[in-house]
Specification:
45% helix; elongated; D-Maltodextrin-Binding Protein, domain 2; 3 domains; alpha/beta; 5-stranded mixed beta sheet; Arc Repressor Mutant, subunit A
C-alpha cells in the first residue's frame, strides 16, 4: 500500500471529480484511477462507487478515506517534527477563520512568526461549520471562530476574547452627537450588516430581538471590508464587534458609540481537531497564544479609540 495512493483518495474526496483530483496530484486521470483500483485490490474492498462520474465512496471506502487522511497528516507531522529537530520549526500552518475573526488573526499569527520565522501561514475565510468539517478531515490545522455558538463537534477549544459591540455612525448624522445608543435606536438607523447566513449576523439579530427590535439593513454583505466601504460611501451605520477596530479602525467622518452589552456574549477562540494526529504547528500556536493577553490587547485598543471622543 503506497502513501501516494492514499493521496489520490484524499484528493478525490476533496475535489469530488476524477479529473480535478488528478490535476491536484499532478498525474493523469488514468494514473489516478489505476492507483485507486490497485488500492482496492490490495485491501480487497470496493472504495469508490462505480459510475461514469465520481458518485461518492462506499461504506468501506469512507473508512479507508479516514485512515488515508490520518496517514497523510501523520506524515506531515513527521516532517514538521524532524524540521524542528534540525534547528527550526518550518512548514505551513493552515488556519480557517470566520470573517469576523480574520480582523484579529494577526494578533495570533504575528507572535508565532516572530518566534519561528520559517513558518508560513495559509489563512482562509470560512464558516464555523466548514471549519469543524475541515478540521476533522485534516484539511486545516486550526480554526478561529465562535466557540460557544454553532455546534463544533469534538474539538479542543482555546478561548481568546469575548466580543463587545459598538455602533459606527456618521459623525454629522442623527446619532452622531451621542456617546451611546440602545439596540432599539440602532435598529432605526439605515444599516449595513453581514448577511443572515453568517453567524455574527444571527447573533446580532438575536440581540436586536431581545430589545424588541427588528432590522432591515440597506446593505447586506459577506465581507467586513464591504461593510466599511459602504459606511463611508452611503453614509450608513453598523453594529460591529470591537475586534474589527484592530484592523479597520474608525472610518473618516464616522463616530464610535458604545452600546449596552447583551445578557449573553460570545467568545471567539481557537479550535483544534479532537482526534490525533495533532499538528505540531497548531500546538505551537496554542502555546504561544497562552502567553499573550489577546482580550486585553483588544480592550486597550478600544479604550484608545473611545478616549478622544468621550
Amino acid at each position: 500500500m503506497l502513501l501516494r495512493q492514499m493521496e489520490y483518495l484524499v484528493a478525490l474526496a476533496h475535489e469530488q471529480h476524477f479529473g480535478r483530483a488528478a490535476l491536484a496530484c499532478h498525474v493523469t486521470q488514468p494514473a489516478l484511477s489505476a492507483g485507486i483500483r490497485k488500492l482496492e485490490s490490495e485491501l480487497r474492498v470496493q472504495i469508490v462507487q462505480r459510475g461514469q462520474r465520481f458518485a461518492g465512496f462506499t461504506a468501506e471506502g469512507a473508512e479507508v478515506l479516514e485512515w488515508a487522511q490520518r496517514m497523510i497528516a501523520e506524515q506531515e507531522q513527521l516532517h514538521s517534527t524532524l524540521s524542528s529537530m534540525r534547528g527550526g520549526l518550518t512548514g505551513v500552518l493552515r488556519i480557517g477563520a470566520i470573517p469576523t475573526a480574520l480582523t484579529a488573526a494577526s494578533l495570533v499569527t504575528t507572535p508565532l512568526h516572530l518566534r519561528h520565522p520559517l513558518v508560513r501561514f495559509s489563512l482562509e475565510s470560512m464558516s464555523s461549520r466548514e471549519i469543524a468539517t475541515r478540521l476533522n478531515d485534516f484539511d486545516i490545522d486550526i480554526g478561529m471562530t465562535y466557540v460557544d455558538g454553532d455546534p463544533l463537534g469534538r474539538v479542543r477549544v482555546v478561548p481568546l476574547y469575548r466580543e463587545r459591540y459598538l455602533f459606527l455612525t456618521p459623525a454629522d448624522g442623527e446619532f452622531g452627537a451621542r456617546e451611546s445608543i440602545s439596540w432599539a435606536d440602532a435598529a432605526r438607523a439605515p444599516l449595513c450588516l453581514l448577511t443572515p447566513v453568517m453567524q455574527n449576523r444571527r447573533i446580532l439579530d438575536g440581540h436586536f430581538a431581545e430589545a424588541g427590535a427588528q432590522v432591515e439593513p440597506v446593505v447586506e454583505t459577506d465581507t467586513v471590508s464591504a461593510i466599511y466601504s459602504h459606511l463611508e460611501s452611503m453614509r450608513l451605520s453598523s453594529v460591529i464587534p470591537h475586534a474589527w477596530l484592530h484592523s479597520f479602525d474608525i472610518p473618516p467622518g464616522a463616530r464610535l458609540l458604545t452600546m449596552p452589552q447583551p445578557r449573553r456574549s460570545f467568545h471567539v477562540g481557537l479550535v483544534l481537531a479532537g482526534k490525533d494526529p495533532k499538528s505540531i504547528l497548531a500546538r505551537t500556536l496554542v502555546d504561544t497564544v497562552g502567553e499573550l493577553d489577546i482580550a486585553g490587547e483588544l480592550d486597550r485598543g478600544l479604550a484608545r479609540r473611545l478616549k478622544p471622543d468621550f
